[in-house]
Every structure is written in C-alpha cells, then in structure tokens.
C-alpha cells in the first residue's frame, strides 16, 4: 500500500509518499502561508509523486472523541472543525490541507492520525488537573499531551534497537524541536507527558514559554498590564529561547553561549534545568528507567545538550559515550559502558507512524 502522508506546518505543507516497505518514494514541500494551499501546486506535486492507495493526515488535536486513527468522512471533518478552539494555531492549517487534498484525490481513502491520541489513555492521576469538577466536566479540562505520533514511533523503535521485551522496558522519549515535550512510555502506552491542555505546558521551547505560574499570568491580566490577545501572543510566539536569548534557533543560542553571551548562557541553563527535571519526573512516573531516547531537530543534532543533560542524570543510571554522541547518523546508541540506562538518538519519523496507522485502518 502506497501511503501519502500529509503534514501541515506553520507555513508549509509537506507531502511524503511511502511504499509498502516504508521506503520513502518521494516528498514535496509546498509553501502554504497562513495555511492556504495553492491547489494547482498541490495537484502538480501529487502527480509527480504518483498515485497513492491511501492518505494519512497529521491532525494535532483529537479532543476526547478521537482517541485513535479514524477514517475520514464528512462527520469526522465537521467534528474536527469544532475542535479548532482547542488548537487554534494548528488545527485550521491541518484542516485546510485535508480539504485541499480531498478535492485533489476525492476517491482515495483518507485517515486522520492524531498527535493527542497516543496520550488518550494515560492514567487519571497524570491526566487530571486539580480544578473544580464542574469545570473539568463542562469544558473537558485535562492533560491531552501532544507529539504523540513522534513519541509512539521512537519508543517502539528504541525497544526494537534494544532487543528487549516491549512490555517490560520503561522508556522516556525526549522530543526536542521548536516544540518540545517528554513522554513516559511502557508497554507501548503513554503513562505521562509534559504538554497539557495546550502545547504551551512543560519544557522551554523555541518561542513558547513552557510551564509558568498561572497566578503570574492572572496578575499580568489585571490592571490592564496586558490584554488577553497580547498575553497569548507573547506566551506562544515571543517567549522560550527567543524571550531569553533573542533567538529561537538553538544552534545560534549555543554559539552565543560559547562567546560568553550572558542571555544565551541563562537560556541554555534554564532549558537544561527544565529538561533534566522533566526527565527525572517521567522516570518517577515509570518507577524507573531503562531507555532514554532523544529525537526532534534539537534532540538529534545538539550533541552538547545531550551530554549536559545526561551528566546531571547519572543518579538514574544515565551515562553517554562521548565518541558515540559526537558521531553522525540519524539512529544510534550513545550508551557508555558504565551506564545502566541505555540511551539512543532516533530520527523523528512521524510519517512512518502515520503510514502504520493508515494501513491498520484501511488495509
């Protein structure tokens, strides 16, 4: 089965065609400013890639309703539109891409694959916010979690590489990119994660703040210090590394840190502080740790950050080999001989996870 994977980004639309053996047969990245897809370019890209047998769409938010991959029909599309308020920055772009591809390939079965679905069954203690029950029930306030397609893939792949029993191995997956989150996984199930009701919670990210004191946000809204739109824009687009160091690019921040830039030094220290604490928290949710996995643009490429994160986690049994850490390659083990926890770098391949889910639904 040839699966066309559709992934709508902030300003681009990525198309990947995967063969039955998961070989990448071709890919195209189209400009899609504000989520608008030019259909002539889309049709042209699809004709170059070749006809698919099925289509898989990455959808950020499935809410409480969509807890697994789902065959798309008009009712599903309408339900996804109603979930837009839970992910106003991401959902409209994904739905615009879905509808454009549906018009281009109306007779090809399409499947929605959700970033939230992997976390849908996390234990109630991990999912529940200590808020009034009427609020939680009326508005569905809970930890949804995100990056589930990435976490699900890398955890399964890490277990394969480790050659262990999938049900026994306890995995902490670190998806570190422009967005960043951690996930505690055992037996192929998410047991805890750092992102919450929205992708703002958790780690320091490129432009997102990560977790902050809600009382501080209330204070900022009082007395006309900030309006709600201003606060939302600052937390989402002008915080994180950008707010701390003046750059959202971790490579630039690390280079500035080496030059002695104090803002960059603080940014890296804050990033690592949250990352180490988060990994330890995920390990606590698992009552131990067997595999630690780094993925995403920062997780795969920032060797110095991996070293500095691991150095503070030796009490968990984490230690990485300097030569293996400095080597090139999308997928490799970094474990030092003295370590009791095995550490891996694995390339983020949401496309493979989406294709797997599509095949399970369609064929």
Q: Any key phrases for this structure?
A:
363 residues; alpha/beta; Nucleotidyltransferase, domain 5; six-stranded mixed beta sheet; 18% strand; globular
Return the CATH class of the largest domain.
Alpha Beta
Strand numbers in spatial order across the main sheet? 3-2-1-4-6-5
Principal-axis shape? globular
CATH homologous superfamily title of the largest domain: ATPase, nucleotide binding domain
Overall tally of domains? 2
Per CATH, which architecture of the largest domain? Answer: 2-Layer Sandwich
Helix percentage: 40-55%
Order of helices and strands: EEEHEEHHEHHHEEEHHHHHEHHHEEH
**Largest sheet data:** 6 strands, mixed
DSSP summary, beta strand count: 12
Give the structural class. alpha/beta
Mean pLDDT: 95
The portion of residues forming beta strands comes to: 15-25%
Residue stretches low in confidence (pLDDT < 50, at least 5 long) are none
**What Rg, in angstroms, do the CA atoms define?**
20 Å
Helices, by number, come to 15
End-to-end separation: 8 Å
CATH topology heading of the largest domain: Nucleotidyltransferase, domain 5
What does this structure look like?
- With 363 residues, the chain is α/β, with parallel strands linked by helices.
- The chain has 2 domains: 3-114, 2-Layer Sandwich (Nucleotidyltransferase, domain 5), CATH 3.30.420.40; 165-350, ATPase, nucleotide binding domain (Nucleotidyltransferase, domain 5), CATH 3.30.420.40.
- It is 42% helix and 18% strand.
- The protein has helices spanning 39-49, 74-82, 91-104, 124-127, 133-139, 148-162, 214-221, 228-237, 240-245, 250-258, 262-286, 296-301, 303-311, 322-326, 350-362, and strands at 3-8, 12-18, 24-31, 54-59, 70-71, 110-114, 170-176, 180-186, 189-193, 291-295, 331-333, 342-346.
- A hairpin with a 3-residue loop joins strand 1 and strand 2 (12-18).
- The chain is globular, with a radius of gyration of 20 Å.
- It starts with a strand and ends with a helix.
- The mean pLDDT is 95.
């Amino acid at each position: 089965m040839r699966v066309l994977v559709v992934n709508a980004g902030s300003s681009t639309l990525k198309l990947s065609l995967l063969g039955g053996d998961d070989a990448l047969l071709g890919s195209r990245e189209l400009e899609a400013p504000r989520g608008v897809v030019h259909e002539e370019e889309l049709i042209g890209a699809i004709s170059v890639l070749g006809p698919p047998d099925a289509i898989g769409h990455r959808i950020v938010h499935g809410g409480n309703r969509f807890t697994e991959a789902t065959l798309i029909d008009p009712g599903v599309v309408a339900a996804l539109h109603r979930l837009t308020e839970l992910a106003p920055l991401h959902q409209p772009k994904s739905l615009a891409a879905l509808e454009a591809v549906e018009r281009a390939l109306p007779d090809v079965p399409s499947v929605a694959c959700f970033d939230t679905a992997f976390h849908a069954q996390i234990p109630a203690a991990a999912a529940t916010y200590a808020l009034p029950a009427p609020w939680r029930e009326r508005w569905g306030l809970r930890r949804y979690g995100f990056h589930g397609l990435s976490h699900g893939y890398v955890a399964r792949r890490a277990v394969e590489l480790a050659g262990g029993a999938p049900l026994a191995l306890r995995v902490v997956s670190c998806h570190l990119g422009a967005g960043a989150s951690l996930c505690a996984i055992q037996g192929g199930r998410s047991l805890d994660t750092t992102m919450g009701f929205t992708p703002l919670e958790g780690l320091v990210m490129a432009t997102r703040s990560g977790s902050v004191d809600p009382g501080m946000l209330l204070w900022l809204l009082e007395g006309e210090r900030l309006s709600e739109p201003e606060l939302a824009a600052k937390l989402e687009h002008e915080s994180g590394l950008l707010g701390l160091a003046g750059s959202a690019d971790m490579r630039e921040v690390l280079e500035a840190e080496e030059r002695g830039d104090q803002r960059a030094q603080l940014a890296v220290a804050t990033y690592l502080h949250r990352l180490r604490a988060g990994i330890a928290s995920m390990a606590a949710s698992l009552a131990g740790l067997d595999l630690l996995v780094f993925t995403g643009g920062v997780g795969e490429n920032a060797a110095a950050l991996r070293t500095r994160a691991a150095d503070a986690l030796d009490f968990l049994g984490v230690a990485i080999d300097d030569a293996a850490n400095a080597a090139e390659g999308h997928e490799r083990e970094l474990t030092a001989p003295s370590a009791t926890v095995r550490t891996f770098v694995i390339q983020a391949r949401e496309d493979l996870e989406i294709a797997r889910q599509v095949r399970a639904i369609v064929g």
